[in-house]
């Protein structure tokens, strides 16, 4: 059984290898510092049977977006600057890739985004895809490319809400 928990000292970050050195380095050297400074929050997915081994992680942070950089359909609805949530990082351990763990983490991130939106209000969820392959992964969840920036993606809060309607 998989669980998603906040990153703590208890987890073995040293062994984590996703195949992307930038993401691996962030988890190993920076994630806990950012957490303690309230810059961002990182969550890990683990297996009940090996609770200290990290199978994947994702990081969320708040962001401010200039509305005119959003797709026109949305930009015209909002003031000059709006608040949002950003998926700053998402990675899965190499041996655990393509087993649905990324999807479990995305759903968890969406739930956290909805919870935040009920407390402070956010227009949606943003992500900067690192590669075209990553972009196509995010597009399957309904993300929309930002004009003139095909690796910067936006998912409106209404789309996330619709995912969880009974």
Q: What are the main properties of this structure?
A:
alpha+beta; Aminopeptidase; seven-stranded mixed beta sheet
The SS-based structural class is alpha+beta
Rg, Cα atoms, Å? 16 Å
Largest sheet: 7 strands, mixed
CATH class: Alpha Beta
CATH-wise, what's the superfamily?
A: Gcn5-related N-acetyltransferase (GNAT)
Number of strands: 7
Protein described:
The protein is α+β, with helices and mostly antiparallel strands and 166 residues long. It has a single domain (2-163), classed as Aminopeptidase. It has five helices and seven strands, in the order E-H-E-E-H-E-H-E-H-E-E-H. A seven-stranded mixed β-sheet has the order 1-2-3-4-5-7-6, with helices on both faces. The longest helix is centred in the middle third of the chain and has 19 residues, at 101-119. The protein starts with a strand and ends with a helix. The mean pLDDT is 94.
